[in-house]
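User: Show me a protein chain along with its predicted structure.
Assistant: Here is one chain, sequence first, then structure tokens.
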Amino acid sequence: MGIFLNPDTPSEAYKSIALTRFFVDKTWLIHDILESLRLDNQRYICITRPRRFGKTVMANMLGAFFGKTTGCSSLFEHLEISKSDYFHQYLCSSDIIYIDFSRIPEKCSSYEEYISRILSGLKEDLYQEFPSLVLNFKKSLWDILSTIFEKTQRKFVFIMDEWDAIFHLPFISSKKERMYLLFLKNLLKDQPYIQLAYMTGILPIAKYSDGSELNMFAEYNMATKEKFSSYFGFLNHEVDTLFSIYQKTTKKPKITREELQIWYDGYHTAAGDHIYNPKSIIHALSDNQLGCYWTGSGPYDEIFYYIQDNIDEIRDDFVWMISGEAVETKIQEYAATAKDLTTREQIYSAMVVYGLLTYEHQKVFIPNRELNELLLSALPENLVKK
């Protein structure tokens, strides 16, 4: 087992969650992905969601299911995916390459150092996995993978978490962004060794790629795409089940079901579902205390910077939203595709993507008390008070 090739990390991470009292079984996502693969040959899937909506949990789940790790059968045999016709065919069946792009080398200060960790690490893993093959590790990573495929016919399942994390690093310039997109294109696009490429992040590919680098991916966001929408976030009936467990297993429970809805509900999917922030639900029930568990940094700081520069235009809107009202606006495909947020619509589009606002019926609003508290504490005082 390597750092990137067939690692134990996804399986161990998913197992640690699957054994907890507040675990929610979302494994049928695997079936739906395999259906897309079989029926439509959709090998490239990118699912974007705000922070704390289970992206990494789902990535670990896929890595644990497909990966050739010990104990994966017992981990999934009692879960929903075990009812799928694909279960025995794909369980523990594949070589996986798992990359968490939010992890960086120690004291990393350049794109070259950042990407070198992935390139050199993967080459070392491949050398250990295929010692009998005559591989030239001076060649590019994609050429090495192509050679392995030609000699063995083995394909790889790529699972890539936080694909957009690199764009928030302080040393990444526009030139380095283009180099990174080219790296992903060369590694993934139309390569014969790809069995499946699954990618997650906060921002859609269109935010950074306006060309053909990654146009092979089918993208699924929360606001406009119905497919896969029920697998990210907790649905009402799932929160009902968790609340019942909480009442049975917590000494002197202090939280009511209604309070959970007020604090953490309010997000909407394109399929029409109301969903809860899963991370905050689990924290609140585990701690037996309501509170603001959603903390933001990085891209969220950027949002507040742009808001401060547009105070005159959006002051009235935020006064209304902080008081619980919705505001009519035109959202630009629910994503801030511009490099700079210069208009009211771009700012609100970005806030929907980041999960700071939700969108329904051509209106944006603050979804719940948790986000209301966060925005009150983070926004400039002169923006939320008249």
